Amino acid sequence: MPHVLVTGAAGYIGSHCLVVLLEAGYEVTAVDSLVVGKSASIDRVRALVGEAASRLRFERAELTDAQQVEKLFTSTKTPFDSCIHFAGLKAVGESVQKPLMYYDNNLGSTQILLAAMQKHGVKKLIFSSSATVYGSADKMPITESTPTGVGITNPYGRTKYIIEEIVGDFCRCPDGKDWSVALLRYFNPVGAHISGDMGEDPKGIPNNLMPYVVQVAIGKRPELTVFGNDWPTPDGTGVRDYIHVVDLVEGHLAALKYLESHEPGCNVWNLGTGKGSSVLDMIAAMKKASGKEVKYKFGDRRAGDVAVCYADPAKAKQDLGWSAKRSLDDMCTDLWRWQTKNPDGYPDA
Asked: Does domain 3-194+241-274+310-325 have CATH number 3.40.50.720?
């Protein structure tokens, strides 16, 4: 059975991906530094997948340490066939305050990982990229041919763009021509596993809209500030493409199957729904799912925000046979279930 190395495996998206890989029959080595991710999420994965947990090995390692990465590759009983690379710092605001830390961590760890993959002959890579690489795109919907790298407003987004460029350059060089790569550009992942046992566990004040909204709904925060109500959108609030996290990770499984069955090359796919929802739409959907009021007030626009951003996911459907299935109601219902079952997130290790 194919053996997949998953980095950043104890994080929000990584842990959900472990479940779909194990349920699909893969052997998985999960690695995380546990700086952001929680070991409890790995315990939840084991509980959810039952007997398939015997195919999961977890290693705590720091990908910026070349010796630790080398040990990952040499200590495995069966060699890795592929790697799904989620690991990286991801808080947009923090990246503005600490850009050197973001460049050092996100770029440094990726280059060390790629070097180890090259040394050990692992030639299939899925990289967790982001719609932020499109910067301030003004034509909607966003396709894979929309220009990247222009108007990116924060160091986090630039690290995603630069890593895409590094990987692309490698795939064009003689040593990388036989690699099979997927650059997956996510839009806005939300929701949780349907069991309510796994979900997003932000530390401190959430950086993303829906974790904040659900904390207001459950009473952990008094109200939400909506940044701008004068955008050129139907209700004046920003519009984004929200995708259920389980749809997102099923997209990774589809991409992995594609890499296993097609000629080498560097592929790019958007993972989104193709539908935009406004901030007020999301508040209304959470109110419906939770039966609770979500108090909010309007504030000024945030620097760097755009009015509208949503994907054209047609290429992923055509190439991978994948499309998002879960609705906005599903996203909010599953998020509410996670929040009510785990009001304080995962327990500390």
From this structure: yes
